[in-house]
TrEMBL record:
Stated family: Belongs to the transglycosylase Slt family.
Protein name (record): Lytic transglycosylase domain-containing protein
Domain of life: Bacteria
Source organism of this protein record: Rhodophyticola porphyridii
SUPFAM superfamilies xref list: Lysozyme-like
Transglycosylase SLT domain ranges (all copies): 42-134
Length: 160
């Protein structure tokens, strides 16, 4: 009987040793190429502020600029390649050149990404697609113009 108890205790201890460290001690993922610790902190801050998965923000940044805050491509600005008009819709009232600042770009582009995330029903691929091509009409048709931050009130009568 003592031998059985000793064996069970030993097995329990071995099983406990096989468990990984708890979530509080897990290290941050390695930085992506061109990402800095400062950009990582900003991404985490704005992802939390707008309730968007940080992994989704990283995915858009990698796709759009590869973490280059001063990236320009035609009319698009910054790390997340946001249009100045879109940034104005999200509350930006400065010149487009301000969108080349990493924090300013994240403030307005992650807010816009939040709407794409809401419309995607939790699907990263769909969220990236809505972000890239725009989602005004989808938000309008689903009575989500206010929730996505595109307008202050719904325009469809059946949404009011």
């Amino acid at each position: 009987m003592t031998r059985l108890i000793s064996t069970l205790v030993l097995l329990g201890l071995l099983a406990a040793c096989g468990r990984g460290a708890g979530p509080s001690s897990s290290p941050q993922p390695l930085l992506y190429p061109n990402e800095t610790p400062e950009i990582r902190a900003l991404v985490n801050e704005y992802a939390a502020r707008y309730d968007v998965p940080a992994a989704l923000v990283h995915r858009v940044i990698q796709r759009e600029s590869d973490y280059r805050p001063t990236a320009r491509n035609g009319p698009y600005y910054g790390m997340m390649q946001i249009l100045p008009q879109t940034a104005r819709t999200m509350g930006h009232d400065g010149p487009p050149s301000e969108l080349l600042d990493a924090e300013t770009n994240l403030r307005y582009a992650v807010r816009y990404l939040r709407g794409a995330w809401l419309l995607s029903d939790g699907d990263f691929d769909r969220a990236v697609g809505w972000y890239a091509r725009g989602y005004y009409y989808e938000a309008r048709n689903r009575c989500m113009l206010v929730e996505t931050g595109l307008l202050d009130r719904e325009i469809r009568r059946d949404c009011r």
